[in-house]
Amino acid sequence: MAVERTSFQPENLHVRIVNGYRLFSPSLSVSGGVRQIFVSGQVSKDINGNVVGKGDMHAQIERVGENVRMCLEAAGATLEHLVKTTTYVTDIEEFFKHVDIRHRYFGPALPASSTIEVRRLAHPDYMVEIDGLAII
To answer: Positive or negative, the Cα torsion across 19, 107, 13, 134?
Structure first.
């Protein structure tokens, strides 16, 4: 059975658009799913644990997107199964300059999401961390 995701935008709720991209789905209905996959917070590191894109938010969002994609694929899912993400960033203004990269991984059928600015992540060179929930 295929998973069907339907995004809802209440008519009286503001739509957040940055650089021409809608940032998230305010609410999301998921039907047909039989299994949940939880992706732990992914940061910008390569297979050897090295930081990718030190000081470069664009590169870090891209690496994190790839890490999330790989986690989902290892569990038998794809980015299309992603229904919820939480994003932690050390500089929210810089993050919003690169929504095209986020949209490439998580759009156009955007999951429900939250983005939170934090003082620091697990390593001083990490600028972004994303966790997620997928349903297949």
So the answer is: negative
pLDDT per position as a tens digit, 82-108: 999 999 999 999 999 998 998 899 876
Q: Which parts of 48-97 fold into alpha helices (H)? A: 57-74, 92-95
pTM over 0.90: no
* All structural domains of the chain with their residue ranges: 4-135
Instruction: Count Cα neighbours of 5 within 13 Å in the Cβ-side half-sphere.
Output: 22
- Output the CA–CA distances (angstroms, integers) from residue 87 to 76, 97, 136, in the order listed: 22, 15, 22
CATH number assigned to the domain covering 4-135: 3.30.1330.40
